[in-house]
């Protein structure tokens, strides 16, 4: 077995590898070319380099270790945090004719024994293993015997203590790789800011790897945030806009999940609860129904979601404030993995902020961790309160510059604005006079003239800025503070992260040389959406049918289909669902929506024409080609 870690490939060999990879891409996955960024990562993989690839959801991270595993000798171990994720990926690989298996606790003893025998006989190209099992000496010995030479770490942000979903069991992976042998490491994730990336590199790799960071932008996802008013009604409005489509609603607590799912179910929504307090068989049943059926809404805590590979989730709502920007990005990233237009809505309020602040203060975490959590909270609040394009603010949190997107609530003018120069000057003056050592709540009390114990203890009731801001309420001043942070007019000192400073751009506003518009405290009501939701939720069957036709037509417009093509798409989806139910699989394992849309658009009549549709590989062409060609033919005859 060649030592891939030390085997630097020549240019000619790399070209041969890439040509073979493109052929395998077509043969096993039905794609004619790589997605942006994939080729660069694959070239490094074939060169035997260690890799950290940060790529957005839907960009094809998994192919960066799956394709090399298919065409190179040896065995690739894939570390995955969830059994459900292992199951789905193995199922999809087998559907495509790739030898893959998963070793986990859900398998029966006899199943695991068969897989272990298959590993010894070289039957598999990839084996998925949970980190808890991988640290076992017998598992390492088995994989060493099976010729494992690549360790792929999926959801690699779990390695970092600074990541939003740190898993302690991931911390042993570097030692595991060393124990099994001199392995190539390929780590992939969709969510890792600069500190998290640095921590992954330090914790996982013996030397600095090749690091690839693709754009974090998901332009097909519409971003929106609202202050909490009537949470249930706000969520219902979003669901009503997506009747018959799948979505996820996140709640901060199990109690919130139970209450909201019961309320939605009582109003006719196919809503299922999911949280760690439910029995495992109930969680599995609800997850399977969500994956296999359209129109199901999962109401869940953050226990649900990592690795969920359902491509046609059309909306994600947060009924409560997420944990951080990274968590927010990861969770909304479960929408629109097929690249089609999808919606998000995040609700936030003062109670959310106070709860999160209290959780941080009362936790047993060390001081450095608490400081990090406070910084993350400030960054999230800046995103909630931003006066500029929401996508610009989100991407800036990951170090990426961008132009206004036109696909968020701020760009669409859903929030009113006012001349904010004087308000900004008052905040920045308060920061300056308190040496930048105090946060938004303290500064809000200072500006409105509220002589709290902290204000008087520090003598801030004697400052000239005490009471100069009575025109706004404390919550409004906190909003202004976070807007200035989002606009990069104030920032946390890079050398002293507990200290706020006024940036050069902020100083221009402070001395009156730059204009500034700030966002007012309440987003404008979407009257059309509210009326539509009320009709759908409260009216009779005729109104429901009208709305369903409208929603279905909207989906066809989103996919760029004509009415005739849309009728064919509906027939193709019905047949796919019939097959999926018979095989007890999720529909997207048969074909993604994007493939069915391609078929509806191209209307192939032969297998040669069908294999030209993006995403139809030889294995699926052979297994399902005749079935779906018959639907096309029958549909044409019917017209």
Automatic annotation (TrEMBL):
Its EC number is 5.6.2.4. It is an enzyme of class 5 (isomerase). GO terms for cellular component: bacterial nucleoid; cytoplasm; replisome. It catalyses: Couples ATP hydrolysis with the unwinding of duplex DNA by translocating in the 3'-5' direction. Its cofactor is Zn(2+); Mg(2+). Keywords: ATP-binding, DNA damage, DNA recombination, DNA repair, DNA-binding, Helicase, Hydrolase, Isomerase, Metal-binding, Nucleotide-binding, Zinc. Residues 234-378 form the Helicase C-terminal domain. One of its GO terms (molecular function) is 3'-5' DNA helicase activity. Residues 42-210 form the Helicase ATP-binding domain. The keyword Manganese does not apply. One of its GO terms (biological process) is SOS response. Pfam families: DEAD, Helicase_C, HRDC, RecQ_Zn_bind, RQC. Belongs to the helicase family. RecQ subfamily. This is DNA helicase RecQ. It comes from Methylocella tundrae.
């Amino acid at each position: 077995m060649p030592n891939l870690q030390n085997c630097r490939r020549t240019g000619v060999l790399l070209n041969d590898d890439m040509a073979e990879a493109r052929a395998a891409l077509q043969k096993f996955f039905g794609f004619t070319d790589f997605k942006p960024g994939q080729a660069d990562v694959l070239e490094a993989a074939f060169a035997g380099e260690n890799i950290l690839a940060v790529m957005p959801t839907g960009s094809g991270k998994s192919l960066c270790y799956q394709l090399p595993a298919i065409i190179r000798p040896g065995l690739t171990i894939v570390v995955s945090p969830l059994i459900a994720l292992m199951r789905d990926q193995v199922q999809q690989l087998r559907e495509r004719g790739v030898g893959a298996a998963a070793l986990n606790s859900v398998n029966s003893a006899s199943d695991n024994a068969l897989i272990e025998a298959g590993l010894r006989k070289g039957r598999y190209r990839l084996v998925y293993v949970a980190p808890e099992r991988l640290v076992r000496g017998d598992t390492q010995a088995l994989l060493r015997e099976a010729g494992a030479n690549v360790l792929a770490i999926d959801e690699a942000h779990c390695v970092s203590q600074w990541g939003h979903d740190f898993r302690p069991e991931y911390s042993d992976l570097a030692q595991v790789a060393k124990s099994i042998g001199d392995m190539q490491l390929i780590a992939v994730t969709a969510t890792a800011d600069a500190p998290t990336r640095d921590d992954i590199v330090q914790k996982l790799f013996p030397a600095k790897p090749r690091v690839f960071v693709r754009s974090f932008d998901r332009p097909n996802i519409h971003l929106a945030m609202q202050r909490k008013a009537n949470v249930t009604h706000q969520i219902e409005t979003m669901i009503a806009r997506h009747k018959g489509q799948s979505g996820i609603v996140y709640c901060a607590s199990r109690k919130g999940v139970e209450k909201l799912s019961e309320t939605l179910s009582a109003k006719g929504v196919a809503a299922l609860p999911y949280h760690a307090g439910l029995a495992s068989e109930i969680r599995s049943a609800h997850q399977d129904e969500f994956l296999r059926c359209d129109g199901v809404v999962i109401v869940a805590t953050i226990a649900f979601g990592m690795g969920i590979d359902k491509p046609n989730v059309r909306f994600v709502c947060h009924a409560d404030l997420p944990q951080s920007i990274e968590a927010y990005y990861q969770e909304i990233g479960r929408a629109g993995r097929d690249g089609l237009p999808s919606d998000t809505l995040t609700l936030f309020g003062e109670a959310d902020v106070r709860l999160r602040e209290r959780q941080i203060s009362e936790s047993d975490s060390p001081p450095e961790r608490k400081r990090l959590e406070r910084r993350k909270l400030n960054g999230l609040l800046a995103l909630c309160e931003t006066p500029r394009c929401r996508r610009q603010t989100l991407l800036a949190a990951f170090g990426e510059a961008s132009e206004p997107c036109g696909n968020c609530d701020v760009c669409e003018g859903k929030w009113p604005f006012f001349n904010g120069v004087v308000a900004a000057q008052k905040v920045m003056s308060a920061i300056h006079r308190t040496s930048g050592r105090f946060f938004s709540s303290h500064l809000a009390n200072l500006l409105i003239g509220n002589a709290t114990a902290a204000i008087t203890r520090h003598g801030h009731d004697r400052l000239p800025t005490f009471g100069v801001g009575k025109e706004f309420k404390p919550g409004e001043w906190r909003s202004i503070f976070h807007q200035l942070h989002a606009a990069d007019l104030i920032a946390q000192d890079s050398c002293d992260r507990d200290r706020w400073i006024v940036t050069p751009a902020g100083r221009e506003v402070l001395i009156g040389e730059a204009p500034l518009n700030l966002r007012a405290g309440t987003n404008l009501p979407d009257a059309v959406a509210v009326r539509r939701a009320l009709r759908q939720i409260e009216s009779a069957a005729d109104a429901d049918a009208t709305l369903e036709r409208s929603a279905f037509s909207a989906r066809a417009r989103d996919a760029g289909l004509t009415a005739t093509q849309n009728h064919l798409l509906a027939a193709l989806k019905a047949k796919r669902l019939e097959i999926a139910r018979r095989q007890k699989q999720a529909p997207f394992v048969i074909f993604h929506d994007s493939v069915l849309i391609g078929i509806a658009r191209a209307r192939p009549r032969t297998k040669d024409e069908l294999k030209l549709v993006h995403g139809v590989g030889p294995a699926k062409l052979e297994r399902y080609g005749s079935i779906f060609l018959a639907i096309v033919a029958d549909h044409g005859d019917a017209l």
